[in-house]
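testing teh design pipeline on a random one, pls ignore if ur not involved
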């Protein structure tokens, strides 16, 4: 029996998971989701969503494929060119990549906004405090003084000076109906989703088929590399990105290992 065989998914601290474990990223995400539920950040339904994503990530080889990296670079260019970029945060995102989202916001000048399906004042405050603990200075989504049209549930509630008026929105781990509603508002929409066939990436301007714990740091790295790029260079990166080809490449990798 190897040391790997003795590693349990039920660990007290993520530092206990050896980084060279062959399923390190899967164990890490499971631990962070479980911890998020305990802290009141993540809803129990988030565990099911993470399980589905884990299966697709396994088929992707638990790696960022070239088409995903190209999408992450295009996403960084969009955020840098935007007048009012916003990064949307739900419970799973807050549990999985809180500090990474703060770093991406700092690198791109974007706002952070909480948006939840299972929305309660206690959960909103828990997530806001969690983001502040990871370096966020301003967190939107608590006022919810505007609504996304044609969306009936609580995820329609947004800040007027946040998602409602944003020109570019990053919506990671998003449900398809809200992604479609944001698309109908003519916003440039960046989606992170491990299933290239789900509605969210299908309607996104930039579909990123990658694990969020890899995708967000990659976007930040690209944004920092492009910080001094002029508008023409950023626009060229955006125009060179082929969303249909990216989705096809991800599906090919999942279906055929190509």
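output:
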């Amino acid at each position: 029996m190897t040391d790997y065989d003795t590693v349990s998914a039920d660990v007290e601290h993520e530092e206990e998971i050896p980084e060279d474990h062959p399923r390190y990223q899967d164990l890490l995400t499971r631990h962070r989701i479980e911890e998020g539920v305990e802290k009141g950040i993540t809803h129990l339904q988030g565990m099911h969503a993470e399980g589905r994503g884990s299966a697709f990530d396994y088929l992707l080889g638990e790696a960022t494929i070239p088409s995903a990296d190209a999408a992450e670079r295009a996403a960084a260019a969009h955020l840098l060119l935007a007048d009012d970029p916003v990064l949307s945060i739900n419970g799973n995102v807050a549990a999985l990549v809180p500090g990474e989202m703060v770093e991406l916001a700092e690198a791109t000048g974007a706002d952070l906004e909480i948006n939840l399906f299972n929305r309660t004042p206690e959960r909103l405050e828990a997530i806001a405090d969690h983001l502040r603990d990871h370096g966020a200075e301003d967190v939107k989504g608590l006022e919810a003084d505007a609504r996304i049209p044609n969306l009936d549930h609580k995820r329609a509630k947004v800040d007027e000076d946040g998602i409602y008026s944003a020109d570019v929105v990053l919506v990671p781990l998003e449900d398809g109906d809200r992604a479609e509603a944001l698309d109908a508002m003519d916003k440039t929409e960046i989606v992170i989703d491990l299933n290239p066939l789900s509605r969210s990436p299908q309607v996104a301007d930039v579909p990123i088929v990658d694990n969020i714990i890899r995708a967000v740091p990659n976007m930040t790295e690209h944004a920092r590399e492009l910080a001094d790029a002029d508008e023409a260079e950023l626009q060229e990166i955006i125009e060179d990105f082929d969303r249909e080809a990216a989705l096809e490449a991800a599906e090919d990798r999942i279906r055929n290992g190509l």
